[in-house]
Input
Amino acid sequence: MKSPSGRRERNAGASGSSVQYGIRRIDLSSAQLASSEMARDINRDIVLEFIRFRQPVSRVDLSRLSGLQPSTISAIVEDLIEEGWVKEGAVVRGGRGRPSTMLSVNEELVTLALDIRPNQAIVAVVDLTGRFLSHETITTATAPQAAIAKLVRKMRSLREQYKDKTFEGIGVSVPGRVDPMTHRLLMAPNLKWDGFDIKSALEKEMELQVEIDNDANACLLSELWFGHLEGVRNAVLIAVSEGLGAAILAGGQLHSGFNGLAGEFGHIPMDPRGPQCGCGQRGCWETFASSRAALKFYRKFSRNASIKDMHDLLRLVQDRDPVALRAIRTQATALGRGLRLVTAAMAPERILITGEITSCWDIAGPVVQAELEAGILAGAAPQLMVAGDGYLARLSGGAALLMQRHSRYHRSTHVAQVTQRSPRGRSRA
Output
């Protein structure tokens, strides 16, 4: 089988990975029979993954790494070259046998990545390896129509700037939940664009295929797509920004629930007498553990609170300002305590944190770790790790989101959503 990251799942053996005994339950209402076409598509995605992670690599090496026959590798590689995903490079002569032509992903194939936040957005051009060719922050209007119009102008400018590249599409991350069927914003308390059809608006103006998802899901998919969760099958990623979102990897599959709302731990009340939350409730976890909460703590503790945003607060933290340090530690304490919700519900083997707070993890990390360990019901605490800068993680996640869903056979990374990879929507700038 193939995991969301494109790697085959292994049965347990000497490696100590988990074993499942008995008969696997099959849901006959939605089961698909394995066809030869399905097998080809799975093999194709596996080969593309090996090329991405081992490039430059020869056809002979691909056969050895994947276990597929040389004839199968040759057929798959020819398809990938024809579709523009892979290109041939240097010819290498070994000690014996015929010379090998090395393969790598096509550097000319890129995506537009868009991270939409309240009052601003970040637009980037990202290639198949996750390399950023360009990224820029743009101030946006509150009204979604005006904001999208401004973003479209910027994306058109980027396509003009990179005329020599082929644009595969647009991957969008948003601070809210997206309906898996309609692709409209289902809940975005901090953005307040509920119900707005971002996907259709961008596709109409840009004439490119658009994929959209929650920012936490995008960050977790980025970790999977770029190989940072190799061998991990149960993990939760917590995205700390204006709000607090979560993404769930359960049994090797990204889990979004029946209606796309799974993982909204940030809107579980911690104190019914706490601050008003954007969702309408009081004392939700994110009102204590988000970046906005850290700013409120600083303004509460300081008599001369002139900071404008989280970047100002983080600069004070780096200068070891005592009030700023107190605010960050208070936020970290709330973040760590809330992780008990996550460990009790999901029992993950790894918890990933991303967002502004990670830039001062030397201060916040030990506090979060101590609270996490104190809240464990039994056994050892999950491994706590930073998933990188939230600014770039959401963008690379948007790019990964697009690439992953363009796979011709996509093995249920997102519940009830299987899309096909095809050249449609691809544009030569």
About this structure: Residues 1-22, 407-425 have pLDDT under 50 and may be disordered. Residues 406 and 420 are 6 Å apart (CA to CA).
